[in-house]
Amino acid sequence: MREKILRLLKENSNDFLSGEKISENFDVSRAAIWKHINTLKEEGYEIESVPRKGYRLISSPDILTYGEVENYLDTKFIGREIHYFNTIDSTNIKAKEIAQEETEGTVIISEEQTLGKGRLGRSWASPSGKGIWMSIILKPHIDPMKVAKITQVGAAAVSLALEDLNIKSYIKWPNDIVMNGKKVCGILTEMSCELNMINYVIMGVGINVNLNKEDFKGEIEKIGTSIKVETGKEVNRKKLLGFFLNRFEKLYTTFVNEDNFKDTLGICRDKSILIGREVKIIRGKDEQKGKVIDISDEGELLVDYGDNKIEKIMSGEVSV
Ligand code: BTN
């Protein structure tokens, strides 16, 4: 009901809407409307209430609820259900808890994570209101061996969404988005499957949107940054989230339904920061130098170690 009232207020933001009209519209009491309006105010909506005139929406808060993101969405199923939290341990943990009962495309999003998880057991700093910390529940009917490619689909979608906002970024294979050599986004994909059947895939995406320089203290200062720090401008998180979900749904459905990974690959190659560069391949304590030749049709990194031996790398850490 609250979402419906909000939608009505947004559609009529130039006028006052009387409590009577809203209650007629939804067939609920004026007292109930008043309660919902108060909850909206608590959430940060600025709503003018004038006796005998009614309510008027003045401004909306910078929050990533469905009500705030839907205007930017043109998806069929990705992000059409958003579970929104103010704070949570980790959206990936929550997504795994509810994945079985939820439909494909459901998004878990939180303003803050207290136990954000990164790859390789690392933690992921997720301060309140400054980033996009989210997980998407996916149920693809594909070979579990192909799930790693979904991470690349996600990376391609983030980079395209940034491009939609005129922001240039690069993809550091397989799943980091970088600006000026530093990481602005990471993806952690987790899966539950039995034999050859996938129960669900959780794609967790962390985008450092409006974090400040001070948010990157210590070791992380050398490797991490935010879009705001790199562009010098505050970025509209709702728009970026909507654009990302739109881009993701297109690439994901082509990949899953048409078995077409070429579209994603084209973007990953085009925006690759590694192709043509000398890199270090890190496996535990072992480091090996090589030159990245390309990304294969299967999404592996092709590395030349100088002795005409080209290795296909499926996963791992690469540093430039
Ligand atoms: C990486 O190490 O690059 C992956 C980082 C993934 C972070 C995101 S934030 C939302 C989701 N929830 C988590 O706990 N982690 C992912």
Automatic annotation (TrEMBL):
Any GO BP annotation: protein lipoylation
GO terms under cellular component: cytoplasm
Enzyme class: ligase
Coiled coil: none
Residues spanning the signal sequence: none
GO molecular function, one term: biotin--[biotin carboxyl-carrier protein] ligase activity
Enzyme Commission identifier(s): 6.3.4.15
Annotated protein name in UniProt: Bifunctional ligase/repressor BirA
Organism listed in the record: Anaerosalibacter massiliensis
Upper classification of the organism: Bacteria, Bacillati, Bacillota, Tissierellia, Tissierellales
